[in-house]
Every structure is written in structure tokens, then in C-alpha cells.
């Protein structure tokens, strides 16, 4: 739990920002040398894809959800205290709660049992992935334990495409919708349909055409049976896009997944690497890897927006397979997440759900290890009848690897000409990419109980200059 929130949530919510004219100087801290300038406007045109306060949200494996929310009890009055504390911090700073998504790998192995006393029974025969999950009516109590106002994207089990499979899906959906109603942001039918044959719930050769046909049929039948509002369903939930994967948002839209008017958003998933494969701190600090993955998403986002639907990264994080010890819960993952989420925001991904609307983001620096982003706030003033957004913050990240064992940390001087008197900054820092205990945000650390320790350090921007060390990130408030 600590790795999920403390090293990602806070760094991300604090570091949603951007800038205008920046100049960079690679230097020892006391002796700056040459300067390069990167221009950014004080105002930009406000797009239709402004971000809301729940932009960074969270996805949970179905069998783990009740532990994160109610310590496994599913008692609506037994909210996990760490979760409660962290959600309180997030709300205080963002003005809204993140969304939660129960679903993931076991989602389509869920069997709804209407007379089951237990909220959830998960049976395992390999590792940490169950081969079947039995959901009882009390599962929804784990949602009721969460603060009012926190919205849910609920992962429904597509199961087998038979009468029995549909009846299970209908019973599960009826229980969820009847109980949660206005807490539901979206309903999600199925998870990563590419893998349905491997799960044994579809024959080999199952295609994206088959999936779209089933999805349209099931969403129509559920909408009619339960009088669901339109649109309420999240479609796709595909594994990371690649040139060889025909299951993707663009293909599904071309095949008519939105034809019935039930589609709210399209979802794709993405991880930087796999727990059992190439997912190391260096993987996360290498921006070339991240940019390569995101290039595919940018194409899909543009195609999805043209058809007037939102595009979300419905399940994403550093390492797939529920994360990797010493990587997903270390400093490299925190600084990667800041860069990753801000970059996704810059090309209009609607929401990012990390596994386990008046803000606009503009990319200002996009180098191999250095990146900078501008966060613009929509203005009430109009320019020739058009809404504009005004520069409010700047986020700067240096993902060059640094380890305290290497000696003194090298610094880069960033000059921000629009940083007038009163501008301030906060810094995210750690001692090495694998650091788990000395990560600080504005001089404070977060304990395993969800409490901040130490005095908050808010530094003034002096003479329009900010020093950022290797492996650090700063948030500048103008």
C-alpha cells in the first residue's frame, strides 16, 4: 500500500505543472556555464481535453480490493486507516478523490454468488493470481467504506459468452448498480480480451471482431435490462498497443463498438516492463523506452478523440505482474511516474489509473533524460471568443541516474524568465534509484502509516533560477 500511494500519488498530484521560457545550464552547483533557452507561451488555447482533479487514479486486482479498503472485512464501517489517511491528504491537495477500479487479471474469472455470505472468496493454485473468484453481495460494502464522492470504475466479468455467462454478468451488474448507483463513473465489461483464449473462456483464434460483437450485444442487453444511463460503459481494456496487436482502440471503434451509444471511454493498458523480465530502475529512468511506448498511445488518442470519446490508461504502472520489489517501491518509480503521467496528460489522455477539468499540460523539454512540463489553468477571460489557459506552474525533471555512492550530485540550472517575485518551488529527491526510505517531497517523508514527517520546505525562486540535481524533480509555482 505504501508503495502504491506514497511514492506515486503525492509526487504526481504535486507535480502537475508547466512553464514558459526556460533556459538550462548543465553545471556544478556553484559555477553555471552555458545556457539554452526553451520558449513557452504565458497563455495557450484551452482544449476540450482539460484534466480534472481525479486525473491520477488507481486500479486494483479484484481479489485485493477489499484489503486496501476494509482490511479484508468488507465492513462498510471498517475503512483501512492507511487508505483513509492517504485519501485525506490527496483530497486536501487536489480538491477531489481519485477514482478506484477493482478489476484486472482475475476480473473475467469472477463468479457472482447471490447467497454467499463472504464478500469474496479467491482460490489459488499458482502464485498470486486466483483461478476463480466468488463474489458475494457484500463485496459492494468495501466501496461504501470509502469516502463519499470517490467514484468507481467497476470491472465486470465477461465470463463465457453463453446464457449462463450472461446471467452471471447480469446478476453481478445488478448488484453493483443497485447498490452503488451514483458512485459509479463507468462499468467495464471484461479485461484484456486478447487473453481470453489463455483463460479458457474463448476458443483459440478469438478476434477483435468477435470481441466488439460481444461487447455491443452485452452492453445493449445490460442497458435495457437495468435501464442504465447512456453512455456508462468503458470499452477496450486492451493490453499495451503494439504494431502486432490487432486489439486496439482504433480498430474497435472502426468495427462499431460505439454503435449502440453505450460507450463512454476507451481503455488501453501499459507497463514499462515485466516483473519476470526487463523491469529495472534503469528501465524506468530511460525516457527513450517510455517515449517509445507512448508513441503508440498518442496515435490511438488522436483517433479516439476524433470520434468524440475519451481515452484512458485504465491500468498502468512501472512493472507488470503486480510490481517488482526494489523497483516499483523505490525512488526510480516515483520520478518515472511523475514524468510518465505528465507526458500522457500533454497529449490528452483523459485519465491514468495506476495499478496495485481545468488543467492543461504542455511539454516544454523532451530530451533523453531531461523533461519539463507546463500546467495551465483555464482563464475566465476570452481572446477573440476563445477560452485561454494561463501558465501557473512548471515541473522539471532530471532522470539522469544518481547514486550517493558516486559522490557529489551534479546540478542543472534552469532559468525561468516568467518566475517573478513570490515564485516558489518544492523538490522531490532520493539518494539513489533503489532508495526506499529516504525519498523526500518538499523536505518531508511519508511514513507507513500515511503521515508526513519533518518540516515542509518551500523554497523561493531567486533571480528566476532553480537548481535541479540528477535524479530530482521540482514543482515551481509562479
Automatic annotation (TrEMBL):
Residues 372-475 form the Beta-glucuronidase C-terminal domain. The keyword Flavoprotein does not apply. Pfam families: Glyco_hydro_79C (PF16862). Keywords: Signal. Gene3D superfamilies: Glycosidases. Residues 1-21 form the signal peptide. InterPro entries: GH, GH79_Enzymes, GlcAase_C. PANTHER family: BETA-GLUCURONIDASE, BETA-GLUCURONIDASE C-TERMINAL DOMAIN-CONTAINING PROTEIN. This is Beta-glucuronidase C-terminal domain-containing protein. It comes from Aspergillus calidoustus.
Amino acid at each position: 500500500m505504501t508503495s502504491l500511494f506514497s511514492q506515486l500519488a503525492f509526487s504526481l498530484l504535486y507535480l502537475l505543472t508547466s512553464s514558459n521560457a526556460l533556459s538550462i545550464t548543465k553545471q556544478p552547483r556553484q559555477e553555471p556555464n552555458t545556457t539554452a533557452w526553451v520558449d513557452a507561451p504565458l497563455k495557450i488555447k484551452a482544449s476540450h481535453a482539460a484534466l480534472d482533479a481525479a486525473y491520477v487514479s488507481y486500479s486494483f486486482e479484484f481479489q485485493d480490493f477489499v484489503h486496501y479498503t476494509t482490511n479484508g472485512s468488507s465492513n462498510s464501517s471498517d475503512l483501512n486507516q492507511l487508505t483513509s489517511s492517504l485519501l485525506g491528504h490527496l483530497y486536501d491537495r487536489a480538491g477531489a478523490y481519485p477514482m478506484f477500479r477493482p478489476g484486472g487479471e482475475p476480473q473475467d474469472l469472477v463468479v457472482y454468488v447471490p447467497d454467499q455470505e463472504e464478500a469474496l472468496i479467491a482460490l489459488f493454485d499458482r502464485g498470486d493470481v486466483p483461478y476463480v473468484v466468488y463474489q458475494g453481495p457484500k463485496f459492494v460494502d468495501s466501496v461504501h467504506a470509502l469516502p463519499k464522492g470517490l467514484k468507481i470504475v467497476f470491472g465486470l466479468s465477461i465470463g463465457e459468452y453463453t446464457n449462463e455467462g450472461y446471467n452471471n454478468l447480469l446478476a453481478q451488474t445488478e448488484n453493483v448498480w443497485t447498490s452503488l448507483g451514483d458512485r459509479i463513473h463507468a462499468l467495464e465489461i471484461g479485461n484484456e480480451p486478447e487473453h481470453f483464449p489463455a483463460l479458457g473462456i474463448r476458443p483459440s483464434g478469438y478476434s477483435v471482431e468477435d470481441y466488439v460483437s460481444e461487447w455491443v450485444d452485452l452492453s445493449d442487453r445490460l442497458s435495457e435490462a437495468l435501464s442504465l444511463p447512456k453512455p456508462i460503459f468503458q470499452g477496450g481494456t486492451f493490453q499495451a498497443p503494439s504494431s502486432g496487436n490487432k486489439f486496439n482502440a482504433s480498430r474497435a471503434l472502426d468495427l462499431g463498438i460505439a454503435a449502440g451509444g453505450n460507450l463512454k471511454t476507451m481503455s488501453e493498458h501499459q507497463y514499462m516492463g515485466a516483473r519476470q523480465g526487463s523491469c529495472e530502475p534503469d528501465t524506468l529512468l530511460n525516457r527513450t523506452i517510455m517515449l517509445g511506448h507512448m508513441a503508440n498511445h498518442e496515435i490511438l488518442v488522436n483517433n479516439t478523440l476524433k470520434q468524440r470519446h475519451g481515452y484512458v490508461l485504465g491500468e498502468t504502472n512501472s512493472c507488470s505482474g503486480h510490481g517488482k520489489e526494489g523497483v516499483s517501491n523505490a525512488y526510480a518509480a516515483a520520478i518515472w511516474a511523475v514524468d510518465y503521467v505528465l507526458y500522457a496528460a500533454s497529449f490528452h489522455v483523459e485519465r491514468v489509473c495506476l495499478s496495485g477539468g481545468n488543467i492543461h499540460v504542455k511539454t516544454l523539454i523532451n530530451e533523453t533524460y531531461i523533461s519539463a512540463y507546463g500546467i495551465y489553468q483555464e482563464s475566465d477571460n476570452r481572446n477573440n471568443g476563445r477560452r485561454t489557459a494561463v501558465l501557473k506552474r512548471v515541473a522539471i525533471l532530471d532522470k539522469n541516474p544518481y547514486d550517493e555512492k558516486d559522490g557529489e550530485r551534479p546540478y542543472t540550472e534552469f532559468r525561468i524568465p516568467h518566475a517573478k517575485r513570490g515564485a516558489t518551488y518544492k523538490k522531490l529527491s532520493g539518494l539513489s534509484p533503489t532508495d526506499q526510505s529516504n525519498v523526500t517531497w518538499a523536505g518531508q517523508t511519508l511514513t507507513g502509516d500515511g503521515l508526513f514527517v519533518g518540516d515542509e520546505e518551500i523554497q523561493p525562486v531567486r533571480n528566476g533560477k532553480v537548481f535541479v540535481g540528477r535524479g530530482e524533480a521540482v514543482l515551481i509555482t509562479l
